[in-house]
Design goal:
This protein is mostly beta strands and 112 residues long. It is built from 1 helix and 9 strands, in the order αβββββββββ. The protein has one helix at residues 2-16; strands spanning 20-23, 30-38, 47-53, 57-58, 61-62, 67-72, 79-85, 91-97, 104-111. The strands form 3 sheets. The chain has a 4-stranded antiparallel sheet, with no helix packed on it. Strands 3-8-7 form a 3-stranded antiparallel sheet, with no helix packed on it. A two-stranded antiparallel sheet has the order 4-5. The structure holds 2-acetamido-2-deoxy-beta-D-glucopyranose. 2-acetamido-2-deoxy-beta-D-glucopyranose is lined by residues 79-81, 95-97.
Length: 112
Amino acid sequence: MKYFGLFLLSVIVMVECNHLFFGTNVNRPMVYHKNAEYSSKVFRKRVENVYVSVPSLYNGTPRPIQGVMAYDLTHSGASANVTQGGLGYNYINIRMKSDRGEKLNYDIYIYA
Ligand SMILES: *[C@@H]1O[C@H](CO)[C@@H](O)[C@H](O)[C@H]1NC(C)=O
């Protein structure tokens, strides 16, 4: 029963939100955090890009991006994709698209 509740919860989360997860954040320091929030456009979808470039050295050693987490805080039909760079690179471009007439609100975390 305990596991069933857990399963149900994960299904609901998967259906209602479009989070973006790439790579891992285990034992990786967070190098960037941004709450990307944009107001809604009446009857239209809003498209925004967030470009992040992280230092190529972290504590003197090369550290490419190893994890990306973007949480959809609107719980609407918004989506987010990586369009440039990402895992293994020192930069990333995340393209976000809101639901029609909804605002955009992504909590973005980058680990390297
Ligand atoms: C992300 O990719 C999916 C699948 O290709 C697409 O349906 C969606 O519109 C894309 N979202 C953005 C913000 O580009």
